[in-house]
Amino acid sequence: MRIPAHSVCTAIRDDIVSGVYERGSRLTEELLARRYGVSRVPVREALRTLESEGFVVTRRHAGACVAEPTVQEAADLLEVRMLLEPLGAARAAQRRTEAHLKVLRGLVRLGQERARRGEGEDLRSLGGWFHETLAQASGSPGLIALLTQLRHKIAWMYAVEQPTRPVDSWAERGAIVDAVARGDAERARALTAQHAERSTAEHRLRRPDLPGRRAAPVPTVRSSQHGVNTASVRH
Q: Where are the annotated segments for Disordered (predicted)?
């Protein structure tokens, strides 16, 4: 049985984002293979993918290490998001399916209910699902991949505070869905740009002193949230 590299990649990426592997720590193939119960081949492929995504860097005499993004690199991600999310919403207005609309409307309805009850943790998850579904509705594989990667990297670098008026935030999402449902690409783009700009103020760097490059420290690993799920792997 060979575990797909993308499954290993997802597991390592999730552990980087959640802080299991600290910035700058080494990622040895042997350690990762043992940790996820796989051979070194899918680990090697996964590290190459994660390097192309910016989560991993290869350093002389150290090998693969978790990247250490600068403050400027973190800020650039929010700028890029403000450009791409409105584009995704405009495309969604042109290409969405009824299934996409059903999911988006359901998420808005749940978000509004949770906002009125002040259920913050649920709102965070629902917000993520909303923007993921909106991206999927764009019908553009390249754009979906870019937005997915952005969400991972922003979650890695930023903690997101709850908006001061969560009911208003979900009303904004509801207006975006209405524009998408009507096929009004320009309104969907404008509303999403406004929403992204407002939400930027809710992002706080997880480490305000984000460093530049420096020598990789001894690996620090906290307990992982999950392993590689091999149940669905075909023999």
A: 192-235
Tokens read off for 122: 């649920």
Report d(CA 112, CA 174) in Å as an integer. 9
Written as six digits, the tokens of 25 are 């720590």
Q: Return the pLDDT at 6.
A: 80
Low-confidence residues in the chain, pLDDT < 50: 1, 211-227, 229-235
DSSP one-letter string for 120-138: HHHHHHHHHHHHHHHHHTT
The tokens describing 47, both together, are 């590290």
Element (H, E) at 228: none
Dist. CA 34–CA 22, nearest whole Å: 18
pLDDT digits (tens, 9 = 90+) for 46-78: 999 999 999 999 998 889 999 999 999 999 999
Distance between CA atoms of residues 153 and 137, nearest Å: 21
> CB of 50 within 8 A of CB of 21?
no
The region that residue 165 occupies, defined by phi over 0 for left and psi between -120 and 50 for alpha, beta otherwise, is beta
C-alpha–C-alpha distance, residues 142 and 80, integer Å: 15
Distance, CA of 160 to chain centre: 12
